[in-house]
Amino acid sequence: MTVAGNDALHGAGRRAGIGLARARRLLRLGLELRAPWEYGATVAATPLLRLAPKGDGHPVLVFPGLTASDLSTRPLRRFLTGRGYASYGWALGRNLGPRDGVFDACRERLRKIRSRHRRKVSLIGWSLGGIYARELAKEFPDDVRLVVTLGTPFSHGPRTSDAWRTYEESTGHRIGAPDILSSLSAPPPVPTTSIYSRTDAIVPWRYSVERVDASHENIEIEASHLGLGFNALAWCAIADRLAQPEAAWKPFERSGARALVFPDPQRKPRGRRLFG
After folding, report:
1. Which residues pair with 59 in a beta bridge?
2. pLDDT tens digits for 14-45?
3. What is the pTM of this model?
C-alpha cells in the first residue's frame, strides 16, 4: 500500500474512533434523563423512607452541585429535617465554583451553624459540592462530624471528566491550577462516605472512589448523576450514616436485604466500555 493509502486508512480510523467516542458520550448523557423518574420513585417510596433511622438532632449542611442552588437540595434537606436533623443549605446561590470569597463564605456558614447548635456539623456535598464538604472537613476537623459525598470527582486526574470540562466552561477556572486541585484526593480526617454510581454519565465512577480504611468508605448505588440527590437509595444510605453515634462511627453494613440493593464495591467492574 502506498504512503498516501496508509495515511488515508489511518485518517479514516481516527475519524471512526472519534465518532464512536462521541456516540458513547451521547448515550451516556442520554441515561441522565433518568433523573425525573428517580425523583418520582423516591416520592413513591416515601412510606418506606419513613422507616429510615431517626437522627439525634445534630446540624447537617448540604452543598449543591455545579451550577445548581439550594433548590436542588431542598428535597433531601426536607427528608433530613423529617428524620430529626437541623438541615441547612449553603445559602450562596448557584454553585459556580470556588470564586473569590466563596470558600470564606462557606467557612463562615460552617462557623455560624456550629456556634448556633454547639455541636459538630455533618457535611453533605453533591458533585462539586462534595469538594467543598471535603475541603472544609480537612480545614476544620474539630467542627465536622462526618462527610458524605454524592458523585464527587476527587480522585484520579480530572481533565478527562465531563464534569470538570463543564466546570471550566462555566467558571473560567483552569483545572490543574494549584488553588483548585491541591491534593483533592487526600481524604478528610473525619469519617467519610462516598456514594457513587457506575452508571453516572457525568463523573466517571472511578473518580469518586475513596481509599477504604477504618473511617473512609464507598457505597455504590444505581443512579444517574443528576438524580443522585433525589435517589431513594442514596437517602437511605445518608440516613444510615448520619445516625451513627458521634465518635462511634462504623462502616456501612451490607448484610441481609441490603446486599440486594447495595452491591459490594469490591466486585469486578461492569460496563467498562460504556462507563469506563
Report:
1. 86
2. 544 444 445 555 566 666 878 888 888 898 98
3. 0.83
